[in-house]
Write a structure and sequence with these properties.
The protein is of the alpha/beta class. It has helices spanning 3-17, 28-35, 39-49, 62-77, 175-178, 185-192, 194-203, 219-222, 237-242, 252-263, 323-345, 367-374, 429-439, 464-468, 496-515; strands at residues 90-100, 105-110, 115-120, 125-127, 136-142, 148-149, 154-155, 166-170, 208-213, 235-236, 247-251, 268-273, 276-290, 300-307, 312-313, 319-320, 353-359, 381-388, 419-423, 445-447, 473-477. The protein is elongated, with a radius of gyration of 26 Å.
Length: 524
Amino acid sequence: MSLKRSFAIVLVWMALVAPGPAEVRLPDGAERAVGSMSAQALHAMVETLASDGFAGRGVGHEGNRTAEAFIAHTLEESGVPPGAVDGTYFQPVELYQPALSGDARLSIEDARGNRVASFVAGTEFYPLPETGDRVVRAPLVLAGYGISAPDVHHDDYARFDARGAIVVVRDGAPDTLQTSTRIPEEERLELTSLERKMRDAQAHGAAGLLIIRSYMPELRSVWPEHPSVRTSSYRLLSDLRLHPAPLGAISDKAAGPIVRALEARNSLVAVFAPGLAAERVTVHNVLGLIEGRDPGRRGEMIVVGAHMDHDGIDAEGHIYNGADDNASGTAAVMSAAAALARAATAGDRPARAMLFALWNGEEKGSLGAERFVDAPEPHRKVIANLNLDMVGRDEDIPDPSDWRFNGFSKTDAASNRNTLHLLGYSYTSDLAGAVLEANEAVGLTIREDYDRGAQNLLQRSDQWPFLAHGIPAVFLTSGLHPDYHTPQDDTDRIDFAKLERVARLTARAAWIVAEGPAPQIRRR
């Protein structure tokens, strides 16, 4: 045997006998509390939340209000103090549900006041649900794709003044942006989003926005005459106040003559009446708070969250019970809150405060989390967010061509036993590292694999409002499966032994973050 080979064997032996990462032990009271978390208790919570009596917990429906009350009662019975500023468990989230009246119209006039085109809501034109409700008369201007991004050398607003005008823009983004290897994928996706076009138009003083679309979904799919709980569209009421300008979509065919006239430098004026009727509704985030022990960090808190709403009932009366999505995450967060409240009562209190948040309105666009980030309750600095969404199954994607699984690779549940995906690692390695550290005592298989990709998963749950506001956040999920967003997502399909491990991981990770240095945003 050569010396070189002998040395290699010694190195291998040293690697085998060397201790792995040290398992973090919590104080005795906290260890006992976390050790008492049980699959049976989690089963009881999921079974209740995902029962037909809660009717899918759809926003704006009685089942959603029942879920709010159940969660608050469970937190109170578990000894978790209320976290909202008014001394209750409920943080109001004011929403509006836009509806289309018969008054929606768009008319185009030339410089002499002659009407050259007129549309009512139908196949060629309609307001979008994100629209403001103000009637606007203003000149039309072309603005390319409506993207103002000088940092990537693209600015459709650079050569004209959009103030007071209705800007006409194309959907999507030019190939130069979509295929650029210099721009991170998530940034390319953001550049093409409706929210970005709205924001850029507003920043340049536009009075309205018309988006030219090559594909126009049917009017009634965008504006159902009788929306079910599942298809109802909601927005934050603050968005209506912040974005009063009208927003509409117009087909390629209808926009053609308008674009040609504007390209020929003919002056056109539009009268845009969105015809919006907005029904207001208030739902609630449910918040529980465990105060920290360190006076020097009293102004900081960790937020541990999961969304409690789901899809409700569809037009045919099918109930979408959402056992995995997201009664599983809700139960895990409530279980972690109860365990750490027991530890605090026994004298083991974390250094920083922990807020346990059960968000409302995630299925309508992370509305509750967005509301919270805009105005945290209690009024403290949020140093980190742990988000749980769909944590009770094993990832199973039999058919990647299914639109629900766009961008995912084929996989099966057997390949994902005991597996949990950790997202956010490319934004905050500190916080991701705390989760991995906590897992030393739990033993899940954690994969860091979905921060990038066409599935855009990182932006599809309640961690995103935190990341978008520069707050370190990570997302834990066991992945998608064929029952995702179907009436078959029921309690009997949950792996409660796995869910218990996820709940224990959550409690341990929250403790580690509460005790350590504040995590930082560090993109990689």
